[in-house]
Amino acid sequence: MTLSEKDTLYNWHPYTQHKTAFTHPVIIKGEGALLWDENEKEYIDAIASWWVNPFGHSNRFMADAIYKQLTTLEHVLFGGFTHKKAIALSEKLAKILPSNQKKFFYSDNGSTAVEVAIKVALQYFHNKGEKKTKIIAFENAFHGDTFGAMAASGISFFTEAFQGSLLEVVRIPVPTKGNEENSLKTFEDLLKTNEYAAFLFEPLVQGAAGMVMYAPEVLDQLIHVAKENNVFTIADEVMTGFGKTGKNFACDYLQEQPDMMCLSKALTGGTIPMAVTSFTNEIYDAFYDDDTSKALFHGHTFTANPTGCAAALAAIELLESSEMQTNIQEVNKQHLAFQKQIETHPKVKTTRVLGVIFALEIHVDSQQDYYGALRNKLYSFFIENGVILRPVGNVIYILPPYVISKKHLDKIYTTIEKALAII
C-alpha cells in the first residue's frame, strides 16, 4: 500500500469533501520556499503553507532554537507556574505591538486566539454588571472554526450547518474603496443600541475572503467610533501579523490602537502551533478582583509551551533582521512589477498588492463558489505545474515565504499567466 493509499484509509483532511477530492501529494521534505513529494516532484510553496512559514521550510536558525529549548525544558504547565521563555516573549511582544498592548494570554491557534478575545469582551461587561452580549464583524470575514470565532465569520459555506447554535453577531459592509461611508454609517447606527461588546475585524486585508483590502484611514474611523461608544475593538492579525503587509503588523498603519489583538500562524515561524491574545491594562483590570468568579476561567494544556515560546522568540529575531526586512521589500517590488504587467490582461478584473500579498480577481460571468469548478480547475493546474496556490473562488492570491528567490517568484507569475490562458 502506498503512502497516498494509507492517507486515504486513515486521514480526514480539513476543508475537504473526500468523495470528490484529488489524491493528496505526500510531502516528505522542504527547504526554503520549496517542498518535495514522495516522487521527488518539486513544488514552490507560494502561500507559505497557509501563511505560517515566512522564513521558509527547515530553517536552521529556527530548528536550533527549538532543539536547544527541547534539551532544557520542553513543557511545563502554565497554571500555577511560569518560565523564562514566556516572560521573555511577552516582554518582546510588549515592545513590538502597539503601545497599549500590555497583557498576553497564550493559546494554541488563530481560532482560539479569537475565542479568548470574544470571551474576554463578553465577560468584561458581565464583571462590570452591564449587559452587552452581541458582537459586530465584517461581512465575509473569517476568524476561525471554534464556535465564537465561527459565529463572527461571515462565510456561510463554512458555518451554515451551525446556524442557531452561535452567539449573535451583526455584520457590516467591508469599507472597500467607494463603500467607506456605507460601512461607517451602518456601524454608527448599530452602536446607538448599546448592545455590543466588541467589534472584531481583520485589519486592512480579509484573507479567506480572497485578500479583500481596504484603507487604514477608514479603519481608524471605525475604531474611533467604537471607542466613543464603549465598544472594544479586536484586531485579528492571525494572517496579517509578522510582516505580511510590509509592516510588522497591519495595525502599524493605523493612528488608532485596538483594545485586543489576536496572533498566531507566523508567530512561531511555521514550526509549532501557538497563539497569543493581547490586551490593554484596562481590560485586564476588570478581571483583577477579590472575587474569584471574576477571573478568566479559560485555558489550554499547552498554554505558553516553552518550546513554542522559544520558536516565537527566534521567529521575531529573524523578522527584525535587516536581511528579512529587505526580503519583504523585494517581494513587494516584484509583486508591483507583476501587477503592472498583468492588470491589463483581458481576463483580469482587478489586482491588489500590500506587502508580500498579491491578489488577482478573474473576470467571470457568474458568481463563483468558494470551492467551485473554476477554483478546482485552477488548483489542479497549479499543482500539476509544481506551484502551491489555493484560489478562493475566482481570486488567485500569492503570499510566499519572505526567503523566496526571484526565480521562483517569476515561475509563480508565469504559471498564473499560463492558467489564465486555459480558462
Automatic annotation (TrEMBL):
Positions bearing the site annotation: Participates in the substrate recognition with KAPA and in a stacking interaction with the adenine ring of SAM: Y15
InterPro entries: Aminotrans_3 (IPR005814), BioA (IPR005815), PyrdxlP-dep_Trfase (IPR015424), PyrdxlP-dep_Trfase_major (IPR015421), PyrdxlP-dep_Trfase_small (IPR015422)
Cofactor field: pyridoxal 5'-phosphate
Primary residence: cytoplasm
Source species, domain of life: Bacteria
Pfam families tied to this protein: Aminotran_3
Binding residues annotated for substrate, in chain numbering: W50, K265, G299, R390
Gene3D superfamilies to which the protein is assigned, alphabetical: Aspartate Aminotransferase, domain 1 (3.90.1150.10), Type I PLP-dependent aspartate aminotransferase-like (Major domain) (3.40.640.10)
Keywords: Aminotransferase, Biotin biosynthesis, Cytoplasm, Pyridoxal phosphate, S-adenosyl-L-methionine, Transferase
Subunit structure: Homodimer.
Name of the molecule in the record: Adenosylmethionine-8-amino-7-oxononanoate aminotransferase
Native organism taxonomy: Bacteria, Pseudomonadati, Bacteroidota, Flavobacteriia, Flavobacteriales
Gene of this entry: bioA
